[in-house]
Amino acid sequence: MGVSRATLSRRFTHLVGEPPLAYLTRWRLELAGRRLRDTADALPAVARSVGYTSVSAFSRAFTRQWGTPPSRHRTGHHPP
To answer: Which SUPFAM superfamilies does its entry note (predicted)?
Structure first.
């Protein structure tokens, strides 16, 4: 892109409203939430599908984002 990381981050934050890493994390966890609701995929598979290599790291990030652990998030939804 021809700009420094700092400049890219500043421009991205200005345009999108949040820093690039926060946006990426939120987007990945939104995808994970959708998969938990819409599929019966095992938690490790969901974590891997959104880029986490550790289920515990995924679970901590998910809980921080949504206020509930992934297993509880799924409990309220019935996969097809």
So the answer is: Homeodomain-like (SSF46689)
